[in-house]
Design brief:
This protein is mainly alpha-helical and 480 residues long. 65% of the residues lie in helices and 3% in strands. Strands 1-4 form a two-stranded parallel sheet. The protein has a two-stranded antiparallel ribbon with strand order 2-3. Strands 5-6 form a two-stranded antiparallel sheet.
Length: 480
């Protein structure tokens, strides 16, 4: 059930993998705790937790008051071969998904660039090495000020093994001179406000780099059976990951699927603990979280009543930190959908089978008939998560779908006449273009709906007393 990770887990994995891959040489040291805290944008306590695990397992050597030394005896060149070999066949699916998502995100980030930002990017381009290419991406994407975007950049980079490869081998990984020219062309196009050229430029840029990476990896790997290949999994990092968040997301998904349409009460704490393999205290915290969200209500002598998607939920308890954090993830997930769904929808719609298309139309028309068109975008995100031809897109959009469920009370609360009319207009446009197989116009309409939905959700949260910028304060790794 639970697959969350903490920031200390990430820092531990980052340095243990680097040491195993032979990134460091004899005598190398890690940066001071304060530097790591700043680079990873986490507390010094989080850094110390990661370093303790590294020290306990022998990866590093610390002497009071002195620099932390890397124990290069833990270097295992064969680990890089195993790591890459277990992913090699999956890269054929992963890279197109990665390119589709990040070309859209990078284009949006370039829209926000100022002259001083371009100056920094040009400096990075001029000195370019393998590590600097990652810093280029990180610096650009920071302009979106979205921790989920940075989280996704980290996860995709880690999956490829990029942070673990020695910078001195960058010439084997990339044609650095060609990359410098491409990056400078992208900056020039952005300054000229030619963002269509920026988007196509990023696509071509990533595809060219992919060819070099795949060729390099192919020379380092050995065949691994398909069933032993490692798929891409997007871990959402939390400051305090708890099993109850994962379990609550699972129950929200069940509510969405209609499992509680007729059975309105959850099992007892003890039965929930047994059913999901968690402790009774975790089951209790999960139910409390659902009640605070407004999705459930504890009734003395009866149990916990769960509300279906067709019912009006209770008001959220917006003063609870856990609810505020979950809404922060919701709004950032919605923003990520806003930036990427047009391109993702185009490839999704073109590959839909007739049966899947008719099933989606049936859902959208049902919502339109029963005055539920505010759920149109949520349904489309779910269908992308189930039927997109790229497994990487399915993984990313399923995580976004789960995070969007936490904002269900916000989305269904948009019942003002103007908001409802907008929902209906977009739903009708999407249904019409989908029926006529005008997939380009349908993807455009989905993109427009996502832009409007994000703005409407932002306004709704502000009316609830939320400071939107406060949502941006979730920790995120910056790679800088």
């Amino acid at each position: 059930m639970y697959n969350g990770q903490s920031f200390s887990d990430l820092i531990y994995q980052f340095y243990s993998m680097r040491i195993q891959f032979g990134y460091y040489t004899e005598g190398d040291t890690l940066p001071p705790i304060e530097t790591l805290s700043r680079d990873f944008r986490v507390s010094t306590l989080t850094v110390k937790t990661a370093l303790k695990q590294l020290r306990d397992e022998g990866y590093i050597i610390t002497c009071g008051g002195k620099a932390t030394k890397v124990n290069t005896s833990h270097a295992d060149p064969a680990s890089a071969v195993r790591f890459l070999s277990a992913r090699m066949d999956r890269f054929a699916d992963f890279y197109p998904a990665n390119e589709m998502i990040f070309s859209s995100l990078l284009t949006e980030s370039f829209r926000l660039m100022e002259e001083k930002d371009f100056t920094c990017l040009l400096e990075l381009a001029d000195r370019l090495a393998a590590d600097d290419l990652m810093r280029f991406y990180s610096f650009a994407l920071q302009k979106l000020n979205n921790s989920l975007v940075m989280n996704l950049l980290w996860e995709s980079s880690l999956y490829q093994g990029l942070p673990f490869l020695k910078a001195k081998r960058s010439s084997e990984l990339y044609d650095l001179n060609k990359i410098r020219r491409s990056l400078k062309n992208l900056i020039r196009s952005s300054k000229e406000k030619d963002f269509q050229a920026v988007h196509s430029g990023f696509l071509n840029f990533q595809r060219t780099n992919r060819k070099h990476l795949v060729q390099f990896y192919a020379e380092q790997t050995v065949p691994v059976p398909k069933e032993e290949q490692t798929p891409f999994v997007w871990h959402i990092y939390r400051e305090r990951p708890e099993i109850c968040y994962s379990l609550a997301s699972h129950i929200l998904h069940q509510i969405y699927l209609g499992h509680y349409h007729e059975t309105h009460f959850l099992p007892s704490y003890e039965k929930m603990a047994e059913l999901y393999g968690v402790s009774v205290s975790t089951a209790r915290r999960t139910i409390r979280l659902l009640c605070q969200l407004g999705a459930a209500q504890s009734i003395n002598g009866k149990g916990t009543r769960i509300f279906s998607m067709e019912e009006s939920w209770l008001p959220m308890d917006c003063g609870i930190p856990s609810i505020r954090r979950s809404l922060a993830f919701f709004i950032q997930a919605l923003e990520l959908v806003k930036y990427t769904c047009r391109d993702v929808s185009q490839t999704f719609l073109k590959k839909l089978t007739r049966q899947s298309k008719n099933a989606l139309l049936q859902v959208l028309e049902h919502d339109l008939t029963f005055d539920r068109s505010e759920l149109t975008l949520l349904h489309i995100v779910k269908y992308i998560a189930e039927y997109h031809p790229c497994a990487g897109i399915r993984e990313i959009y399923f995580k976004l779908f789960e995070l969007m469920l936490w904002g269900y009370p916000i989305m269904t609360g948009l019942k003002e006449s103007d908001s409802q009319r907008k929902c209906v207009e977009y739903a009708e446009m999407i249904i019409h273009t989908l029926k006529t197989n005008d997939f380009l116009s349908c993807a455009d309409a989905i993109g427009q709906l996502a832009v409007w939905k994000f703005s409407a959700a932002d306004d709704a949260l502000c009316r609830c007393g939320f400071d939107f910028e406060a949502f941006r304060l979730l920790p995120s790794i910056q790679l800088m």
